[in-house]
Each structure stands twice: as C-alpha cells, then as structure tokens.
C-alpha cells in the first residue's frame, strides 16, 4: 500500500471514529453540561447586575467592564475547573456505563482513530461551551443594557479583552483537562476522577497565594492566566499557555500508549 | 496458512493473566459455513478465547488466524470481515436502537441502508425508534446481533448470545442464528454453557474445560466419544447383576432395581435380554440411554481431570 493510500485510510478511519463518537453524545449529561454550564454562569452574573446594577456600577463608569470581569473572575478560578473535571467524567461515563469499550476496540478502525476521536469530540464540546459562554455573556449584557442604558453601553475593546481572557484561560486549563481526561478514561469509578480533581483544585487555590513554583501546577494555570491578564502575577502568558499545551501533548501521547495496551475485560 | 475450508484457526494457543493460565495449548479449527458451538462451564476460558480472536487480549503473533490472517498483525482487515457480540449487549441506553446501529454503521463505513436491512433481519424494525432503555433484554440482544451483522460479515462470533433470555427469547435467537447460517451463509462461532442450545443449533462443537480443548469435531460424532448405556429393570437386580458380571460385562447398580450397563450396539441389547431370560430373571424393561451432550460433557471432563 502506498503512503498516500495509507494516509487516506488513516484519515478516513479518524473521520469515522470521530463522527461515531459525536453521535454517542446525544441526550447525555456531558452535552447538557456543555450547554447549560455557560448558560448558568452568564445567567448568574446577568441576574446579579439586573437587580443590583445601581449599587455595583459607579456613576459615569461603563458597567460592561465590571460585569464581564466579574463573570470571568468567578469562572477562571472555580467554575472552569469544576466544569472540566465534570465534563471529562461525564464524557467517559458514556462508554463506561454502556460497557461498550470492548465494542469500540473491536471495530475495524485503528486504535489511534478511536483514541483521537474521543479527544477531538471533547475539544469540540469545550469549544462549544466557550462559544456559548461568550454568546450568553453578550446576551446577558444586552438585557442589562436595555434596563440600565445609562450605566451600560457596548464597548468593543472591553468585549475583545473578555474574549481573549476566556480563550487564554481555557488554553491554560487544557493540561488540567488532559489529566482529568486520562483519569476518567482509565477508572470507571467517578470518585477517583472527581477526588483527584478536587485535590488538584484545592491545592492550586492554596498554592496560588504565594508559592513561587505555582506556575507549574496544572490546576492553577487557569487562575494564574486570568490574574496575569490583570497584571496581578509576574508569570508570562505565553509561559502559562505553552506549558499547558506541552503538558497536554505529553498526556495525549502517554494516554495513547495506555489506550493501546489496555486489556479490555 | 490460509486453508479454504477453515475460517478460524488457533495454533498451540496458551494465554494467562498474571500467574493464572487460562488457555492451555488450544488448537481450534472452525470450518467455513458451520455453526460452531464452543461449549464449556463458566470460567473454562470461552470468553478469553473470543477476546483473543477479537484482539482485545493479545496472545502474540502466529497463534490465532482468522480468514487465514494473523489477528495480531492484521487487526483492522480481520475485524472488517467479522461481526461480534461479546457477553452482553453494549448499547447506549440514551439512544434509540436505530441510532445505536448508526454508530456501528459509521464505524464500519458501510452504506446507511444496512441499518434497515439488519433491523428487518432481526425483527426489530417496528421498535427501532424506541430508546434502548425501554427495551427488554431480548430486544437489546437482537439489536446487538444486528450490530454484529451491519457489515454483512462472513463470520459471526457470538459469546453466550442467549444468556439471560427467557425460553421464548432463547428460541427466537436460536432460530435467527440457524437462519443466518442456512439462508445467509454465515459461519457462526458461538460460545455457550447451555448444552441443549449447542445440541439444537450447532453443526460442530468444541468442548473446553480448564482452558483445554477436550473434544472438537462434528456434533453427530460427539456421542461416540462416550459410551452408550443400557438401563435394565428387573425383578431381582442382585441376581441379574451377578449374572451379567459372570459374563464379563461392566454392569453396575443404579437405583433399587435398575442396572446400568455399557453396551456397544443393538445386537448386544438383544443378547443381554436373551441371557437374562435364560437365567430365569424377569426383565421389566430395557432402555437404551443415548448420552446427551451433558452426559458427554461430564464424561469428557471427568476423563481429563
């Protein structure tokens, strides 16, 4: 078989595995979480500003900045972390609950295709959440703007900063996602993945207070990235995001060997 | 390695997990076009062998050949040509039966029209758009078999396909398997610990116990692996037993007035009857007890312990 044919075959298998993987998400908690979590965060901030904007926003200031900053502040520290922990658990529970790994491994597609397909769909789900989060935040802002036209007006720069902050935080959180992804894949018991996530989260919250090597802690990267966008920590954004992406690649590669060696019982 | 009439072959296959040896020197040869029963008690190694065939466990190269190809080295090519059902239906309960089949259809890369064809084949077309969580076990089993058929495979590997079904469900699955073999020409390799099921469906059988194959061959020849028994009911069993033993026959007391005797053919039954009557023993009945698979299985396993 020529190299071209091999590559075509590989791409075809990856496409099939990813497409099949996407179908499994219909009506699952993972999909519900991916769509409802952004709605929940945005709704929370919108309700707070809808009710108490006059007390929160100072006269003459644009409330948009404070509103979006409040949203990303809450999200980067806690909600994104727990969202990714829960999402990775729910993604793998689809397979664990159906006891279908033995089927996945006995379809005529390469191990790489089935493995990479799972990652791709997970990234798509996270991407969907980020997109919805941005959209819902914008809708929330418009609702508040209608109620308080004197306190809120659209500023493209503020929104662009918010978009950048959200994307940076998500990129910096990918290493955390990778760790949780592999743990949830390896152990069907949700307690293992959840407790690892909670331990990681709590330790990160404590260490962010002043440990000088905290920028190597995968669970602290999201929070540090947000803090860096406000100039509150000295670490560079590129360091935080590149470190996260390198970690993710290492986890992806290590996870692939784990996937191939897996004995399906 | 490819032999035209053999679809599955294993060569001196041994496999273990940790210290436990699960399969010991298994040499299996499954002919094309057969319904091959793989019979053994729980824990004998049936599912392990099936998992090795599907490359879910690796036993190393040059051990297992499907369609004449080494499973370890040609995993994808081999899996393209077979359908499988391992232990229990693994379906996504939040999806409908048709959606579950759609997933399999995409993985296999076959035409979408196959979904309707296999639903028709397993008699599930009417229920295809119901969520799997609303299905009975029998319906799940049928969808799982439909998944196994979606790529129109030459070989079907079914691990305990009637497990957990009620008698009606068992009969339906049995009829389906037989029709897949006779009308659609599929070779079927199925494992079971239900001896009567194997007897009713299979053309060939292999008996496995403690990881070793005790017998393999066509099912009609299997009874010859064990002896036939004659049950004799007489008025005075002690007298009859002594008389038969005097003749050098291997007779034993079974119940109060029943004697069991190993025989070789119909002529011997007549001779025994004549002899007992000549000895003045009242014979109430002579019953030839043709060993069923269960007797044979017990006999084979005892011989190998």
Structural category of chain A is: mainly alpha
How are helices and strands ordered from N to C of chain A? Answer: HHHHHHHHHH
DSSP strand content of chain A: under 5%
Low-confidence stretches of chain B: none
Can you count the helices of chain A? Answer: 10
- Mean pLDDT across the residues of chain A is 91
Would you count the extended β strands of chain B for me? Answer: 16
Main sheet summary of chain B: 6 strands, mixed
Largest interface (C-beta under 8 Å): A-B, 26 and 31 residues
In total, the number of strands of chain A is: 0
What is the molecular shape of chain B? Answer: elongated
Give me some keywords for this one.
heterodimer, A: 265 residues, mainly alpha, B: 305 residues, alpha/beta, 6-stranded mixed sheet, 4-stranded antiparallel sheet, 10 helices, 34% helix
Q: In words, what does this structure look like?
A:
The complex is a heterodimer of chains A (265) and B (305). Chain A is an all-alpha fold and 265 residues long. Chain A is built from ten helices and no strands. In chain A, helix 3 runs parallel beside helix 7 (174-186) and helix 6 runs antiparallel to helix 9. Chain B has 305 residues and is α/β, with parallel strands linked by helices. In chain B, 34% of the residues lie in helices and 27% in strands. Chain B contains ten helices and 16 strands. In chain B, strands 8-9-10-5-11-12 form a six-stranded mixed β-sheet, with helices on both faces. A four-stranded antiparallel β-sheet of chain B has the order 4-1-6-7, with no helix packed on it. In chain B, strand 9 (155-159), helix 6 (167-182) and strand 10 form a beta-alpha-beta unit. The radius of gyration of chain B is 24 Å and the shape is elongated. The chains are: A mainly alpha (265), B alpha/beta (305). At the A-B interface, helix 1, helix 3 and helix 4 of A face helix 2 and helix 3 of B.
């Amino acid at each position: 078989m020529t190299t071209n044919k091999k590559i075509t075959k590989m791409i075809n298998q990856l496409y099939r595995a990813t497409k099949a993987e996407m179908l499994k998400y219909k009506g699952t908690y993972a999909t519900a979480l991916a769509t409802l979590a952004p709605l929940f965060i945005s709704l929370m901030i919108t309700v707070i500003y809808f009710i108490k904007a006059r007390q929160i926003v100072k006269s003459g200031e644009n409330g948009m900045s404070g509103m979006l900053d409040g949203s990303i502040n809450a999200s980067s520290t806690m909600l994104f972390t727990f969202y990714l922990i829960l999402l990775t658990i729910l993604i793998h529970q689809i397979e664990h609950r159906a006891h279908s790994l033995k089927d996945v491994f006995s379809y005529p597609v390469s191990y790489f295709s089935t493995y990479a397909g799972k990652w791709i769909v997970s990234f798509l789900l996270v991407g969907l959440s980020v997109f919805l989060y941005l959209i819902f935040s914008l809708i929330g802002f418009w609702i508040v703007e209608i109620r308080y036209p004197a306190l809120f007006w659209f500023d493209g720069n503020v929104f662009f900063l918010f978009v950048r902050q959200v994307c940076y935080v998500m990129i910096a959180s990918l290493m955390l996602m990778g760790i949780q992804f592999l743990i949830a894949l390896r152990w069907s018991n949700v307690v293992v993945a959840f407790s690892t996530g909670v331990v990681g989260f709590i330790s990160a919250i404590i260490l962010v207070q002043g440990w000088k090597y905290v920028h190597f802690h995968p669970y602290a990267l999201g929070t540090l990235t947000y803090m860096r966008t406000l100039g509150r920590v000295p670490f560079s954004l590129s360091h935080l995001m590149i470190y996260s992406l390198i970690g993710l690649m290492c986890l992806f590669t290590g996870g692939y060997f784990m996937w191939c060696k897996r004995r399906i019982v | 390695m490819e032999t035209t009439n053999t679809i599955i072959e294993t060569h001196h296959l041994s496999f273990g997990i940790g210290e436990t040896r699960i399969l010991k020197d298994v040499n299996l040869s499954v002919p094309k076009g057969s319904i091959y029963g793989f019979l053994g008690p729980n824990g004998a190694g049936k599912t392990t062998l099936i998992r090795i065939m599907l490359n879910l466990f690796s036993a190393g190269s040059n051990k297992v050949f499907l369609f004449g190809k080494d499973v370890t080295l040609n995993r994808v090519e081999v899996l393209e040509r077979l359908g499988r059902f391992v232990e229990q239906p693994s379906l996504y309960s939040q999806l409908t039966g048709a959606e579950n089949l759609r997933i399999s259809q995409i993985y296999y890369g076959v035409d979408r029209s196959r979904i309707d064809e296999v639903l028709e084949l397993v008699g599930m077309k009417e229920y295809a758009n119901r969520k799997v969580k609303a299905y009975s076990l029998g319906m799940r089993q049928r969808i799982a078999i439909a998944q196994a058929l979606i790529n129109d495979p030459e070989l079907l590997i079914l691990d305990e396909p009637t497990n957990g079904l009620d008698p009606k469900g068992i009969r339906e699955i049995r009829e389906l398997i037989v029709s897949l073999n006779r009308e659609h020409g599929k070779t079927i390799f199925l494992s079971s610990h239900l001896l009567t099921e194997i007897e009713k469906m299979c053309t060939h059988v292999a008996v496995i116990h403690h990881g070793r194959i005790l017998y393999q061959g066509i099912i009609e020849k299997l009874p010859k692996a064990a002896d036939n028994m004659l049950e004799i009911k007489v008025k005075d069993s002690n007298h009859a037993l002594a008389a038969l033993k005097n003749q050098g026959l291997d007779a034993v007391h079974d119940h109060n007035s029943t004697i069991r005797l190993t025989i070789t053919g119909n002529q011997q039954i007549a001779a025994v009857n004549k002899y007992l009557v000549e000895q003045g023993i009242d014979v109430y009945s002579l019953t030839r007890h043709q060993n069923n698979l269960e007797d044979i299985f017990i006999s084979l396993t005892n011989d190998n312990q």
